[in-house]
Task: structure prediction
Amino acid sequence: MADPRTQADPGVLQELAVRATMAAGTELLRRYGHIEGLDTKSSDTDPVSDADRAAEALLVEMISAERPDDAIIGEEGADRSGSSGYTWVVDPLDGTVNYLYQLDNFAVSVAVEREDSGALIGVVLDPVTDRLFTAVRGGGAFLNGRPLRVNDPVSMRRAMVATGFGYEPRRRAAQGAFVGRLLPHIRDIRRFGSAALDLCSVAAGAVDCYFEEGINHWDHAAGGLIAREAGAIMTPFTPTGQDRGWLVAGPALHSAMTDFAVTVRD
Ligand code: IPD
Ligand code: CA
Result:
């Protein structure tokens, strides 16, 4: 059993995270366009297929082979405890609905977290465009090796805001109502369909802000680190009172959005 105080080399963890992510991305592309084993999860609009399951199995197999003492949690059920103090948080296919419809915007997302200090490594791959987003805590964020920086300062009036909607109808109604209140105050809204890529888009300055309520740990574990390493502030954000909500933006816009949510609530 590994000594829990042992520190792994972040470079070694990142190299494995990138290799496993790329293998999962290749598996998703191999299956793209011919969906098998289609099923639903939390609601009848929340799909899962053999592609999600096969990509997660591959991630778990590759990670376990080299890091047998690490814990792994994944969207499709991976739930392995560990003794090393490291946890891999994987979303084998973020943007499953896009994948189903062959809308080319989905990702493999892999993070490594330390039990005592949180996210250490973040890797997000868009396999269709071969965009590989990476971050090691304290070392900045990169797209295919090029450093990333969030847009800042950005005013509300100029803000391009990405968001998403949960799979549960009542959640959606409240989320839609908040977006309705927000729209007159910002440049525009985008709903791309992959939280992990939305977070990387904030990091890359392709949008100015991302917020969403009801997202899961594996949706934001890697992309959140990438956005923060590119200069974003990421804090809990629940403008409609739902759980697991996050607001991610450069400092000026983050502060303006936080103030706006308070005025809407009052
Ligand atoms: C979903 C996507 C989507 C977001 C949902 C997530 P999935 O993940 O990230 O953009 O709006 O909240 O559940 O189900 O495609 O892995
Ligand atoms: Ca997801």
Notes: The first strand starts at residue 39 and ends at 40. The chain has a mean pLDDT of 94.
